Amino acid sequence: MSGNRALVDPELLPLLDRLGPSALDEHLLPAARAERQAVPGAMDKLPVETFSRNIPGMPGDPDVRVLISRPEKASPGPLPAILHIHGGGFVMGTADRFLPLLRKWAHDLDCVVISVDYRLAPETSFPGPLDDCYAALLWAVAEAGELNIDVSRIGVAGESAGGGLAAGLALLARQRSGPHLAFQNLQYPMLDDRTGPDSPRNPVTGDYVWTRDMNVFGWRSFLGVMPGVEGISPFAAPTRATDLSGLPPAYIGVGTLDLFLDENMDYALRLIRAAVPVEIDVFPGAFHAFELQPRAAITRRSMARRTDALRRAMILRPGKDE
């Protein structure tokens, strides 16, 4: 395995050894998908109910499956909500794989979590996956009464490709003048289709778990064309947006060894310059998807920071949201 292991947080090294070399292409994709299809084993004992619904897609699109988690005994009054979009390089992953996290959020934050099983690339290219996410947002607002959701406190959250879709959804909702999003919580989001083997290289990023070659495959599958060409929509690759003003407040978390470090830092800086409130955490020695080592101290610290950002983002601000 390439890369400087001396830079990796020592508690994450066993994860690298377990995962082995990183590669993904059209031939390896079926096996990678199968590996990520498995639902976590024993269900936690949290007082949270979880159920799925098939909801209407955008006009002309098929129904979209969403996975909903909410407290069995919630606080009085409508609850804040997180529209969650899972990661997987646009080509793999399911909402069910994130069920432990979704249920923990619902319990710890006293909120409703709606996770979208959007259609995957390459079978469905852009804008299909983003349309599925927008359909879920429209449905959450339309069904807010039944779901006991406070429509002024709905935000988006996602990891990797899901973080990119969440950022794209924030841009799309702004362009269409709604629905209102209260926050965007982005964990090492996949934002820039131009990040690849031929892009300016940070010498310490992209060696582990999600590499430059894998990134090209994911983007090519999602876009339906080679990444890096002119005319890519900013709703597909949010760093292509020229105007970031008016977007919801953002939290971004990323590791120093993650391929997406530079594009995430640049996006955060551009949001700040556009007067969007931004909080960014950079975790030393962490590579992409480092939370797959759940007991590592850096993982616990990252999860705590991300959850705290969600908690603060969902607090009603007197005089503005009430």
TrEMBL record:
SUPFAM superfamilies: alpha/beta-Hydrolases. Coiled coil: none annotated. InterPro entries: AB_hydrolase_3, AB_hydrolase_fold, GDXG_lipolytic_enzyme. One of its GO terms (molecular function) is hydrolase activity. Keywords: Hydrolase. It comes from the Bacteria. Residues 82-291 form the Alpha/beta hydrolase fold-3 domain. Signal peptide: none annotated. This is Alpha/beta hydrolase fold domain-containing protein. It comes from Acetobacter fallax.
